[in-house]
Amino acid sequence: MAGVGDRNLGFMFLALALGLAIAAAVVSWNAAQRWMAVHRITEGRLAE
After folding, report:
1. What's residue 34's pLDDT?
2. Looking at the domain assignment, is residue 32 inside a domain?
3. What would the pLDDT profile of 1-47 be if each residue is shown by its tens digit?
4. What does the alpha-carbon distance between residue 18 and residue 3 come to, in Å, rounded to a whole number?
5. Residue 22's pLDDT is what?
6. pTM for the complete prediction?
7. Is 24 part of any domain?
8. pLDDT at 32
9. Which domain holds residue 35?
10. Residue 33's closest CA among 43, 22, 21, 25?
11. Exposed e or buried b for every residue in 31-47, given b needs 16+ CB within 10 A?
């Protein structure tokens, strides 16, 4: 039974790691989009 428990624990850890990776990707993507928008706005102001 220990083997089954270890396998479940490993799967849970893998799912948790995958979830964290996806969350980090979403956060970094949102930060990049926000930075690009701010950069575009400041460029527009400088051009005026």
Report:
1. 94
2. yes
3. 566 778 889 999 999 999 999 999 999 999 999 999 998 888 888 77
4. 22
5. 98
6. 0.60
7. yes
8. 94
9. 20-48
10. 25
11. eeeeeeeeeeeeeeeee
In total, the chain counts a number of residues equal to 48
Mean pLDDT of the chain: 89
The verdict on residue 37 lying in a domain is yes
Asked whether residue 12 is assigned to any structural domain, the reply reads: no
Report the alpha-carbon distance of residue 43 to residue 37 in Å, rounded. Answer: 10
**What's 1-48 look like in SS3?**
CHHHHHHHHHHHHHHHHHHHHHHHHHHHHHHHHHHHHHHHHHHHHHHC
Rounded to whole angstroms, the maximal C-alpha distance in the chain is 71
Domain count, the chain: 1
